[in-house]
Amino acid sequence: RFGDIAHGPSVEVFELVAKFNEDTHPSKVNLSVGAYRTNEAKPWVLPVVRKVEASMAADETLTKEYLPITGMPQFCEAATSLVLGADNPAIAEKRAGGVQSLSGTGALRLAMTFLRELCGAKAALVSKPTWGNHLLMFRQLKYEDVREYRYWDASSKGLDLTGMLEDLKTAPDGSVVVLHACAHNPTGVDPTHEQWGQICDVMKAKKHYPLLDCAYQGFASGDLAMDAWAVRFFASQGLEIFAAQSFAKNFGLYNERVGNLTIVTATPDALERVKSQIKMIIRGMYSNPPAHGARIVNTTLRDPALFAEWQGCIKTMADRVLMMRAGLRKRLENLGTPGTWNHITDQIGMFSYTGLNPTQVAYLVKEYHVYVMKSGRINMCGLTTGNIDYVAKGIYDAIIK
Ligand code: PMP
After folding, report:
1. What family does the entry list (predicted)?
2. Is residue 25 part of a domain?
């Protein structure tokens, strides 16, 4: 019976990682996967995470009992405060809260399922381009009308605001709209505060459901509050919103699958209703979330000394990305690489949308063993002081060929 099942497609980013791992070339560089790397091109377990884990290991009061279906309440509270700001009136008014999720992906999936099944949403919009999983999830959930709104303007290598607003306006009323809260993946281009205001006005007029994807808080500017600006702004505008938080990037907890779905509603009663339904969605999917990552995040967010240490780690990561951006731009310009390269330093977050086309990308992979996504997206964290000259030369060569 299963012999006739068609093969599913591969997931580009993980396929590239597998090829990279198999590659024996001594100069190989992986610029594909969205994870932080040190200047030695090594994964980084944040020292603050190691410290908290050591104390957890020694704590015999911690058991392996089930968490509640919606997760560890203290963690959800701390995570919600982190994204909305502890002094957010919606928290004081008890109309903002959180549900623990399987990282950012799980939070998105919970919100999308709730909006489809309980609000009857049929249409969904994501930015063009976006992180591929958004489209996959909407399709799996049988959204009938899945569209892309214009976002990346190839000529200016910036935001196509006019196109974006037009597409939001022409979409069916009550569409679910995924908005990247900061550090847009893959383009590294975020709206300005003024532009967010215009986006919000259209969202309101069209009664769209805002689903803010907040996977990189701290990675855009290095400042946690600044990176949550869009989420806080939407919450302040009288809209009911979902914000999908991930602690994969800013805590380096990629495999712990710890996230939070922050929910802001008009009334405390509405919040309880929404949470009770999301609880049933979780119960039917995986019953209860894992505790380890939530304990690490909760402990760190609640202890002022650990929190300060964590902020230091975020700064280390954000500063290294900035240094690599400046370094790559300078090298490409010094080599006289055709085109303009200011977008490398204008874009923010972990990724840069280089503008390399698929042929140039294929050249880089084949000739230089530099692994880049077909879209031309590169993870700045894959660059190091040891490989940046080599990568710049590879890009130069790929373009002039
Ligand atoms: N949204 C975006 C835009 C992302 O880039 C990512 C990570 N690649 C996520 C959400 C969620 O990732 P995770 O499920 O690992 O938290």
Report:
1. Belongs to the class-I pyridoxal-phosphate-dependent aminotransferase family.
2. yes
